[in-house]
Specification:
Layout: H1 11-15, E1 24-25, H2 28-37, E2 40-46, H3 51-61, H4 64-73, E3 74-80, H5 85-99, E4 107-111, E5 117-121, H6 135-164, H7 179-191, H8 208-221, H9 224-237, E6 253-254, E7 262-263, E8 266-267, H10 268-285, H11 288-304, E9 306-307, E10 310-311, E11 314-315, E12 318-319, E13 322-323, H12 331-340, H13 348-354, H14 382-393, E14 401-402, E15 404-406, H15 407-421, H16 428-442, E16 443-444, E17 447-453, E18 460-461, H17 464-481, H18 484-501, E19 502-503, E20 506-511, E21 515-517, H19 528-542, H20 548-557, H21 559-564, H22 570-594, E22 610-612, E23 618-620, H23 630-643
Parallel strand pairs: 1-3, 2-3
Antiparallel strand pairs: 2-4, 4-5, 6-7, 8-11, 9-10, 11-14, 12-13, 15-17, 16-17, 17-18, 19-20, 20-21, 22-23
Helix pairs in contact: 4-6, 5-6, 8-9, 8-10, 8-22, 10-11, 10-15, 12-14, 15-16, 15-17, 16-17, 17-18, 17-19, 18-19, 19-20, 19-22, 22-23
C-alpha cells in the first residue's frame, strides 16, 4: 500500500512510495501529526542515484519489522536533497556540528516534534557493525529516551541550534595579494598523488574546479609542475573506471586510489564540469586527446541524459539491486562478444589483456573496462571491441535515470556546450536550444524556480546556486553569440540575486523556510558564492563597473580563509587572482592610454568596453563608445593579451 509520497514529483521520493514505512514528505501535515501524537521525527535525506541510500532502503525501509517500529514510535519524513538543497544544507551543518566531521548520504536525523535535532547519523546498518548498533535497536533506544527524557533531549537540541546560529558572527579579514598563487602551488604539490593523480586518497573525487584552477595558474605563471599535475590527473581519470569507456561519461567518484572502481552513478554536474576542464586542457596543452574526452562526455549527455532541450539530473549506480551490473563484464561473455563482432580469434586474448579483462576480474570477479594509456590507442580491433561490448550492454536494463530537471545543473551543462561550440560549431545549436528551454520552463513571470520534472510545472523556487549558475551560462551564451538579450537576462537575474541573498559581503544560499549561508568551499561542485562573484565581475566589465564593489566586499569578508587555504576554495581563489590581476592590468592600461588620450577622465569607463573571450583573452565589446578610439582600444587589447 502506498504511503504519503505517492503524489510527489521527486523520482527519489517515488522510489520510497511503496515502502512499508509510512513516509511523509517534508511539510506541515507530518509536523502536525508529530505534535498531535507526541512523537519524535525520523528524517531521512538522500537522492535517487545514491548507492548507500539504496542499501539502507533494502535493508531497513523495505523490512516489515523495522517499518513497524518506525511507524509505531516515529513520524518518518523523506527528503530529496537535490530537490530541497536548503533542507539538506541545514541538516548537513547540524550533522557536522554534532559529529565534528562532514556528513554524507543517506543522512539520518532524529528531531523532536518541534523539529529540533537531537541525534544524527548517515547510513545505519540493519545489523550491528562498523561500531554501530543496528537501525532497529537504535530506533528502540531513541523511542525509549524520547518517551522518558524528552525535556533533556529538547534542551540538547536547543543547545545545538544555538551553536549553529551564534549571535555574533566575527569576520577575520586579511590582505589579498598574489602570494596566493605561490601558496596554492605549494599546497597542491604537497597533496598531489604522484602515482595516480589527484589530491587525496580514496574515496577520490574528480575535483574539477581544482584542476581548472591549476590550468589557469599555469597560464599565468608558466610553471610546468602545475600543468603536469593537472594533465596527469586528467589522463589518469580517463583510463577507465571513473570514466566509462563504453558509453562515455564520468561516474561520481572512485572508491580506490587509481580511479578504477567507482560508485557507478553519473551526475550531470560532474559531466558538465569535467567536459569543460578537459576542453581547457586541450586549449592549454594542444593535445587533442583531452578535446576528444570532452566531446565524448558531451555526446554521452546529449544521447542518454537529454530530452526536449533539458538535462536529467543523474543515472543510478545500481541495476536490478546490484551495483554496477549494467557496466561490468564477465570474461567469457566478453570474449563471446568479440567472436560475434567478427574479430579474429587470434586477437581475442591480446584485446582482453589490453582492456584489462581477465578471468579473475578487477571488480567482484567481473571486469571494468580500462586502458593503460587512453591517449595513444594502437590496439588492433579496439573500436570493434568497444562496439561489441556496447552491443552486449544494450541487452541489459539501463540504470534508473532521475528525470528531475535542476536549473543549476542544467546551466552548468549549457555553459559547457557553449564553450565547446567555440571549438566545434555542432554544439552551438543544442546549447541555444537548451538555454531557451530552461528559461522557458523555469523562469516564469520573472520568477526563477529550482527543480521540476519535464512537462511538470515547477513548484520549488530557486536558490542562490540557480541564479548564479544560470547567469554564468547566460554570459557564456552572450560571449558565444553576441545576443544582448542573454546579457540583459543575466544582469536581471544577478540584480535579483543581490537583492535576495547579499548581506554585507556574505551570501545566503536560501532565505525561505531555512535561512542558510552559502559556502565558499567547492564540495560536490563549485561554490555558489564564487560563481556569483564570477558573474558580477563579468557584468562589471560588460555592463556597469558598480557591480565590482560586491566582488570586493565579498572577497574582503572571506579573505582570511581563502588566503590561508587556497586549495580548499579553488573557485574563490580563482576570483581573488582574477580580481587582483584585473587591477594590475587596469593600472598598466591607464598609463598606456594617458600617453594617447588627453581627455581620459571624460570617458565613462574605457575598461568596460573589454570582455573576456573563451580563452580568457580580451576583445572589444560591440559598443558605440569605442568609435573614435579604435587605435587606443586596440592598444588595450595588445596589453591584455601580453598579460595572459
Amino acid at each position: 500500500m502506498a504511503n504519503h509520497l505517492k503524489n510527489e514529483h521527486s523520482p527519489y521520493l517515488q522510489q520510497h512510495a511503496d515502502n512499508p514505512v509510512d513516509w511523509y514528505p517534508w511539510g506541515e501535515e507530518a509536523f502536525a501529526k508529530a505534535r498531535k501524537e507526541n512523537k519524535a521525527i525520523f528524517l531521512s535525506i538522500g537522492y535517487s542515484s545514491c548507492h548507500w541510500c539504496h542499501v539502507m532502503e533494502h535493508e531497513s525501509f523495505e523490512d516489515d519489522a523495522t517499518a513497524k517500529i518506525l511507524n509505531t514510535h516515529f513520524i518518518a519524513i523523506k527528503v530529496d536533497r537535490e530537490e530541497r538543497p536548503d533542507i539538506d544544507k541545514h541538516f548537513q551543518a547540524i550533522y557536522q556540528l554534532m559529529n565534528q566531521r562532514p556528513g554524507g548520504w543517506p543522512t539520518s536525523i532524529f528531531l523532536t516534534q518541534e523539529q529540533k535535532p537531537f541525534y544524527s547519523a548517515t547510513y545505519i546498518p540493519d545489523e550491528p557493525r562498523y561500531g554501530m548498533m543496528s537501525f532497529s535497536s537504535l530506533l528502540e533506544v531513541i523511542s525509549d529516551k524520547y518517551s522518558k527524557e524528552k525535556d533533556l533531549l529538547t534542551e540538547k537540541a536547543d543547545e545545538i541550534l544555538r551553536f549553529l546560529n551564534p549571535d555574533e558572527d566575527k569576520i577575520q579579514a586579511t590582505k589579498l595579494d598574489l602570494s596566493i598563487i605561490k601558496r596554492l602551488s605549494e599546497q597542491s604539490t604537497q597533496l598531489f598523488d604522484h602515482k595516480y593523480g589527484g589530491f587525496n586518497k580514496a574515496p577520490k573525487f574528480p575535483q574539477a574546479s581544482m584542476l581548472d584552477l591549476l590550468l589557469d595558474v599555469y597560464r599565468l605563471t608558466g610553471e610546468k609542475e602545475t600543468l603536469n599535475m593537472a594533465l596527469f590527473t586528467l589522463s589518469s581519470m580517463a583510463k577507465g573506471g571513473l570514466r566509462d569507456l563504453v558509453d562515455g561519461g564520468f561516474c561520481r567518484y572512485s572508491t580506490d586510489d587509481e580511479w578504477l572502481v567507482p560508485h557507478f552513478e553519473k551526475m550531470t554536474y560532474d559531466n558538465a564540469l569535467l567536459s569543460e576542464v578537459y576542453l581547457k586542457a586541450y586549449h592549454v596543452s594542444g593535445n587533442v586527446f583531452y578535446k576528444n574526452v570532452a566531446f565524448e562526455t558531451l555526446d554521452f549527455m546529449l544521447e542518454k541524459m537529454y530530452q526536449d532541450g533539458l538535462f536529467y539530473s543523474a543515472s543510478d549506480a545500481d541495476t536490478e539491486g546490484v551495483e554496477g551490473k549494467y557496466f561490468i563484464y564477465d570474461y567469457d561473455k566478453a570474449i563471446k562478444s568479440f567472436e560475434k563482432a567478427g574479430i579474429p580469434s587470434n586477437a581475442h586474448k591480446a584485446l582482453a589483456k589490453a582492456l584489462h579483462i581477465t578471468e579473475a576480474g578487477n571488480f567482484e570477479f567481473k571486469n571494468i573496462i580500462r586502458l593503460d594509456d587512453p591517449s595513444h590507442i594502437t590496439i588492433p580491433y579496439y573500436t570493434e571491441a568497444i562496439q561489441a561490448l556496447a552491443k552486449r550492454r544494450k541487452k541489459r536494463t539501463y540504470p534508473f535515470i532521475d528525470k528531475k530537471v535542476l536549473v543549476s545543473w542544467n546551466a552548468m551543462m549549457i555553459k559547457s556546450l557553449f564553450k565547446a561550440s567555440r571549438t566545434d560549431k555542432k554544439y552551438l545549436a543544442p546549447a541555444i536550444k537548451s538555454l531557451d528551454a530552461l528559461l522557458q520552463s523555469m523562469y516564469i513571470n520573472s520568477e526563477l524556480y529550482h527543480a521540476t520534472l519535464i512537462t511538470k510545472a515547477p513548484k520549488i523556487k530557486a536558490f542562490l546556486e540557480d541564479y548564479a549558475y544560470l547567469a554564468d551560462a547566460l554570459i557564456e551564451a552572450y560571449q558565444s553569440t553576441l545576443n544582448e538579450v542573454y546579457l540583459i537576462t543575466a544582469t536581471k537575474l544577478t540584480n535579483t540575486a543581490i537583492e535576495k541573498y547579499f548581506d554585507k559581503g556574505k551570501w545566503k544560499f536560501s532565505r525561505g523556510e531555512f535561512e542558510t549561508n552559502a559556502d565558499i568551499y567547492d564540495s560536490s561542485y563549485p561554490s555558489s558564492v564564487a560563481t556569483i562573484l564570477n558573474v558580477l565581475f563579468s557584468i562589471s566589465s560588460l555592463v556597469d563597473v558598480v557591480y565590482k564593489k560586491f566582488v570586493f566586499k565579498t572577497l574582503e569578508v572571506y579573505s582570511y580563509d581563502v588566503m590561508r587555504q587556497p586549495l580548499s576554495t579553488p573557485r574563490m581563489t580563482r576570483m581573488v587572482i582574477r580580481y587582483l590581476k584585473d587591477d594590475v592590468i587596469i593600472k598598466a592600461t591607464e598609463a598606456k592610454l594617458k600617453a594617447h588620450i588627453t581627455d581620459l577622465d571624460t570617458l565613462p569607463n574605457p575598461f568596460s568596453y573589454l570582455k573576456n573571450d573563451s580563452n580568457d583573452g580580451y576583445m572589444l565589446c560591440n559598443s558605440s563608445a569605442c568609435f573614435g578610439h579604435e587605435k587606443e582600444f586596440s592598444q588595450i587589447v595588445e596589453i591584455m593579451e601580453k598579460r595572459q
